[in-house]
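Let us work through a complete example step by step.
Step 1: write down the sequence.
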Amino acid sequence: MSAKILQINYKLNGPRAEYEKENLPYAQPIADIPGLRWKVWIINEAQSEAGGIYLFDDDAAVQAFLDGPIVAEMKGDPTLSIKAFDVIAELSTITRGPVK
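Step 2: predict the structure and record it as tokens.
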């Protein structure tokens, strides 16, 4: 079973401080998702884009998250982009990727 990376991006609608404040209530529920090892919150204010990089234990954990209420709430956003990737553990370990 291979770990999975999920990348979610969408257009930012406001300043960074507002984004952080609006998303603070979601941080703990996301942290509590079964099978989620970690999430890195990302933002590019110059391009008005935000999102996250998630590491999940496996396909089942990714699919459960994608079928859950957090993503359901986001699906109305036409700028939403969701991409899933397999992790290449051996190479990532060499380059100190936190995938174990």
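Step 3: interpret the result. The mean pLDDT is 94.
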